[in-house]
Amino acid sequence: MEKIYGVIGSPISHSMSPQMHNDLFNFYNIHARYHAFHVEKGNVKKAIEGIRALEISGCNITIPHKIEVMEYLDEIEAVAANIGAVNTVVNQDGKLIGYNTDGNGFIRSLHTVIEQSALQHANVLIIGAGGAARAIFISLAASGVKNIDIANRTIEKAEMIISDCQYEVNSVALSMKDAEMNLGKYRVMINTTSIGMSPKVDELPISLQHLSPQSIVSDIIYNPLQTKILIDAREKGAITQNGIGMFVNQGALAFEKWTGIFPDTNRMETTVTNILG
Ligand code: ATR
């Protein structure tokens, strides 16, 4: 019987996940389809009951349901529990298990520019303290990276992520100004804010005046593919990466949990860049 997978969110019509996963199901000859399910806030519980009743094999969860969905699942994997958000559900013979592949997807993508052994000794700066920052911070900490600071406009939100973290870290919450002044000490800088996203493409989350030319600058935004921070950082000599890798790898890790196959991420990247044009 054909297996059914999908993504639950609102808005959902522009999700690239259906094309990305359906291409993989075809490529690996897996008899399955992946659908976009539009689920409004307030209907998550019913949607999860639907997954059980319809015996849907697995799904991704996206905005705005990643936190609420946890209440309705049978088991939450430890890192997802510490993040406090789930983006992937596996239906294991009727038991719904929640995972978060956003943070580890980001780390896999970061490994294309820095090895884990170097990352473990690197000073890392995360800019922003929303849901994406939380997933990345906790996952980096769980992977053994200890020197991860967070800069945010609202510093209390950065402090909260650090104090919630159950893994050992030497982290400081910074104001944006303090981060700017101390930028030179960071080997890796990650923008998780929406600053620079289309249509406001001329905005920078932070001044790059003190950026080290030896640094790596990663932006989780992929629209546009090259944000101002990436363009300016490259001009200063830094290595840069956009958010396509995180998106593709969170999907690849979900696909692996559902099928046991870690898919070809280059192929996924081609699918996604074709959609983005
Ligand atoms: P996500 O879940 O995608 O990470 P989010 O939870 O809305 O998104 O978080 C957005 C992040 O971008 C926050 O860190 C936010 O800063 P605040 O916590 O101070 O709100 C940051 N952000 C968004 N717009 C910003 C702006 N114009 N200036 C500074 N920070 C901004």
From TrEMBL:
The residue ranges of the Quinate/shikimate 5-dehydrogenase/glutamyl-tRNA reductase domain are 118-194
Coiled-coil annotated spans: none
Gene Ontology BP terms: amino acid biosynthetic process; aromatic amino acid family biosynthetic process; chorismate biosynthetic process; shikimate metabolic process
Protein name listed in UniProt: Shikimate dehydrogenase (NADP(+))
Against Gene3D superfamilies, the record matches this protein to:
Leucine Dehydrogenase, chain A, domain 1 (3.40.50.10860), NAD(P)-binding Rossmann-like Domain (3.40.50.720)
EC number(s) stated in the UniProt entry for this protein: 1.1.1.25
- Name any one GO molecular function: NADP binding
Does the keyword S-adenosyl-L-methionine belong to this entry? no
Show where the Shikimate dehydrogenase substrate binding N-terminal domain sits: 7-89
Cellular component annotations (GO), alphabetically ordered: cytosol
- What is this organism's lineage? Bacteria, Bacillati, Bacillota, Bacilli, Bacillales
Task: Write out the residues that bind shikimate.
Answer: S15, M16, S17, T62, N87, D102, Y222, Q250
